[in-house]
Design goal:
16 helices; 9 strands; seven-stranded parallel β-sheet; 2 domains; Rossmann fold; alpha/beta; binds NADP nicotinamide-adenine-dinucleotide phosphate; about 400 residues
C-alpha cells in the first residue's frame, strides 16, 4: 500500500502533489457534480473575476473542466508544456479571486476575502513559474540509463520505426526486427548514416512461436539494455467473418511473442541491475471493443502483463512501461481493414513513451485519448462502454464485415 502511494507521488515536489490532488478532485468530483447535479438556477461560475450565473455558468463549467483535467494530466506525467501555462492559469485565478469579492462583496469584508483567496493561488502561480527545471528536467540519455543496445520489434513501419529512430538519435545501437527485411535494411542505412551507431537487422515472423528464441539467439553476443516489444496488428470485423488462423496469429504476435521476448531479455537486465522494457499496448484496452474483440482483448493482456512487471521488477532496476496509443497515422488501419487516416503522429507516441519510461507503469498517448480512456473506464459500466465502442467501430469497418 505504501509502495503504491509512493509510486504515484514520487518525482514531484510536495506542493505539486497537493496541486495534482486538487486538480484531480476538481476534474473527477467537483466539476462533474457542479455540471450534472447543481440546479441551473443556483449555478455560479467565476472567470477573470467576473461572476456568471445560470446557463452561462453551466456552459463555462466545460472549459473549466478541460483546464483542470489538463492540469491533472500534466502534473501526473510532469509534462513539459505545463511550463509556463500552469503558472499563467494559476496567476489568472489569483487575480480573479482578488477582483471577484471586491466586485461582489461590499466594503472591508470584500477586500479581506479577496486578499485571503488571492494568496494561495498567487503562491502556486509563483511556484509553478519557478519550476521550469522540474517540468523540463534534462534526463540522461537512454544509452546512459540502460546500456548500449536496444531491440525493437515491428521496426519496419509506423511506431516501431520511430522508436528505432529515437533510440538511435539518443546514441543507442539498435537491433531492427520485423518480416520485411528490405525495409529494415533501408532504415538501417538511414540510422547508420545519420547517427553513427551500429545497427543489426534480424528478419523474423512473430506468428512463429520459435521466432522470439531465434531473435534472442541472433543477438546473444550483444548487451541488450532496452527491449521495445512493439510489433502487433489487428483485424476489424465480426468474429464469424474472420479466419480463425488470423485471430490466433494475432494473439501469438500481440501477446505470446511479447511474453517470450520479455522473458528472454529481462534476466540479463536484472543481472546487470538496469534495463528498460517498453510494450506497445493500445487505448483499445480501456473497454471491450465489439468488431475488434480479439485485438482489444490482446491489448488488455499487454496492459496487465506490463503493469504487473513494472511493479515486479522495480526493485531490480528494470523499468517496464506500456505505451497505449490511440488512433495513430501508420499502416495499422490498412492492415486491419479499417478506415485509415487521422490520429496522432508516430513520433508523438514515441515521445510520450520515453517521457513515461521509469515514471509510470503505463501511459495513454495524447491527452484526449487519456481523458476518453479514463472517463470510459471509471465512469461508465463496462457493458455500456462496449455499446459505445461498437458504435465507434461500426463506422470504421466495411459494412460486409459488421
Ligand atoms: N496505429 C494505431 O492506430 C495503433 C493504435 C494503438 C496501438 N497500436 C499498436 O502499435 C504497434 C505498432 O503498430 P503500428 O501502428 O506502427 O502499425 P504498422 O505501421 O502496421 O506497423 C506494425 C509493425 O509490426 C510488424 N509486424 C506485424 N506483424 C508481424 C509479424 N507477424 N511478425 C513480425 N512483425 C510483425 C510490422 O512489420 P512487418 O509487416 O514487416 O513484419 C510492422 O513493422 C502495434 O502493437 C499496434 O497494436 C497502433
Amino acid at each position: 500500500m505504501f509502495d503504491w502511494l509512493r509510486s504515484h507521488f514520487k518525482g514531484r515536489p510536495g506542493w505539486a502533489n497537493a496541486l495534482m490532488l486538487f486538480a484531480g478532485y476538481m476534474t473527477f468530483v467537483y466539476i462533474p457534480w457542479d455540471f450534472f447535479i447543481k440546479p441551473v438556477a443556483v449555478d455560479e461560475e467565476v472567470w477573470f473575476g467576473i461572476l456568471f450565473r445560470g446557463t452561462a455558468a453551466k456552459i463555462l463549467e466545460i472549459p473549466h473542466w478541460f483546464v483542470y483535467a489538463a492540469g491533472f494530466y500534466g502534473l501526473r506525467y510532469m509534462k513539459s508544456w505545463m511550463w509556463p501555462w500552469a503558472a499563467v492559469y494559476a496567476g489568472q485565478v489569483a487575480v480573479g479571486m482578488l477582483i471577484w469579492p471586491l466586485l461582489y462583496v461590499e466594503g472591508f469584508l470584500g477586500l479581506l476575502f479577496g486578499v485571503i483567496s488571492f494568496i494561495p493561488f498567487a503562491g502556486f502561480s509563483w511556484l509553478l513559474w519557478e519550476s521550469r527545471s522540474v517540468f523540463q528536467d534534462p534526463r540522461p540519455s537512454t544509452r546512459e540509463r540502460y546500456g548500449e543496445w536496444a531491440v525493437v520489434t515491428g521496426a519496419s513501419a509506423g511506431i516501431g520505426k520511430e522508436f528505432a529512430r529515437a533510440l538511435a538519435a539518443d546514441g543507442m545501437s539498435v537491433v531492427l526486427t520485423a518480416r520485411r527485411g528490405d525495409r529494415l535494411r533501408e532504415l538501417a542505412d538511414e540510422l547508420e548514416k545519420n547517427h553513427q551507431v551500429s545497427i543489426r537487422v534480424v528478419e523474423a515472423d512473430l506468428t512463429d512461436p520459435a521466432a522470439a528464441e531465434a531473435i534472442a539467439t541472433a543477438v546473444s553476443d550483444l548487451e541488450v539494455g532496452v527491449l521495445v516489444a512493439n510489433a502487433g496488428f489487428g483485424y476489424a470485423g465480426r468474429i464469424d467473418k474472420q479466419e480463425t488462423a488470423r485471430l490466433t496469429d494475432m494473439v501469438q504476435v500481440n501477446c505470446a511473442a511479447v511474453v517470450a521476448l520479455t522473458s528472454r531479455f529481462v534476466p540479463a537486465m536484472v543481472e546487470r541491475g538496469r534495463g528498460g522494457v517498453i510494450i506497445t499496448g493500445s487505448a483499445a484496452a480501456y473497454q471491450p471493443m465489439p468488431l475488434h474483440a480479439v485485438y482489444a482483448a490482446s491489448k488488455v493482456f499487454d496492459q496487465y502483463f506490463g503493469e504487473a512487471l513494472a511493479v515486479e521488477l522495480r526493485d531490480q532496476g528494470v523499468d517496464v512501461m506500456v505505451i497505449e496509443p490511440g488512433r495513430t497515422e501508420t499502416e495499422f488501419q490498412d492492415a486491419a481493414g479499417e478506415q485509415s487516416g487521422g490520429g496522432q503522429l508516430p513520433h508523438e507516441v514515441v515521445e510520450t513513451a520515453f517521457d513515461a519510461l521509469g515514471r509510470a507503469p503505463s501511459v495513454i498517448s495524447g491527452w484526449f485519448n487519456w481523458l476518453r480512456g479514463h472517463v470510459v473506464r471509471r465512469l461508465f459500466p463496462r457493458s455500456f462502454a462496449a455499446y459505445l465502442a461498437r458504435e465507434y467501430m461500426a463506422r470504421q469497418v466495411p459494412p460486409e464485415l459488421r
